[in-house]
Amino acid sequence: MMKIQENLQYSTLMPAAEHVFTVSAAKLADIERTWDPAQGAPVFTVNGRYTSRGWTDWTQGLRFGSIVLQYDATDDAAMLELGRDRIVQQMSSHLTHTGVHDHGFNNVSTYGNLRRLALEGRFAATKWEVDYYELALAVSAAVQASRWAVTSDGSGYIYSFNGPQSLFADTIRSLRVLALGHQLNQVLMGEGDVKTSLLHRLVEHAVNTARYNVYYGEGRDIYDVWGRVAHESIFNTKNGQYRCPSTQQGYSAFSTWTRGLAWIILGYAEQLEFLINTPPQDFPNQYTKSAVLDLCLKAAKAAADFYIANTAADGIPYWDTGAPGLVNLSDYSNKPADPYNPWEPVDSSAAAIAAQGLLRLGHFLSKHDQTGGVYTQAGLTVAQTLFQEPYLSVDANHQGLLLHSIYHRPNGWDHRPTNSNIPHSESSMWGDYHLRELAVYLIRLAKGLPYLTFFSPQ
Questions:
Q1: Residue range(s) defining the domain that contains residue 145
Q2: What CATH number is attached to the domain comprising 159?
Q3: Where are the alpha helices (DSSP H) in 77-155?
């Protein structure tokens, strides 16, 4: 269980958050100097150097989005220009990619971050430039919303790259692009010019993820405990009936893959921030605004509570709560995580994602006169751990920023150092991106700058 540090404040961690970007600058420059675009997108490191791995191409936007976040934190004009150029040159195919559930990762991290900074007045953008970013996001939103499967009650979900039977926990964070599309007055046009609301699809997906991927101790099965998360939910494509939990990257359908858990915490916290200011009349007829907010909050709090209860004392989780080797790690949940142990790897990328989700959940609750202090302090505890060694990569020869990230443990894709039984000491593009995003979030709050959201305040 996490030992939450009660005395931490945003200002306490600001120097460490700013140091992240001091370390980050050289790593981004190294990747830019050495990466061969013919290899596709960089995914994770092997012996400290980024390499690619074909599965779905969801990390290109995180690479270029990291460059934009570097500008956000440092005002380095060269980073802004590099980010703008690379996004224009290499991201257009991701806008119309019909085969993935990853639009919120690729396109909100790039076009969305540039639009946000332009609207904040952080750089001189012409109206046409902002229009370009908004058109890109509107197109991406509609394409993502078209990837739709219908459930037995007539609602639906954005299905994963596995196919129409598959609802992933990860996709809750891709809903950001639908939210932006709705704000930009975009709809999905279908046969006979039928218009489908992007907000309606966002709400239905959020509701169904909360219903099927998150557990609440209500007796769905014998492994139903408050906050457990299934990576994947499987549906019968003939009639839309729910069939069973599953996983692609976790240990089992009845344990919790901790990066999936982290996506739930962050995804629902962000949607609460967006939906609270969305007019009630925009919601689907079958879902009242209050009911949707209540369910999103229930899912976020349940997952956050499970994370706090099942992670190591310093806030870093092992890659899956049911990983079989954990039995060999005596009292592992009551001491700091050991990324070099001989049995099971930690996943620092899950920690970086979860930390931001915990902070956002705490901020949301406190802003709306509810108790959120435990989540805020938990998020700061995790951030404090990640912003220092052995997780912050200070080796100039290592291209990664956040060490001890795990991609796909069951497939054995992660690099194991010589004489090690488990992978460690490597980085991933999503881990690096989310560490930077976490640091930007903290810096803005510590300095009293505009609160970081993916959407435009209404």
A1: 10-447
A2: 1.50.10.10
A3: 77-90, 92-95, 103-106, 113-119, 127-145
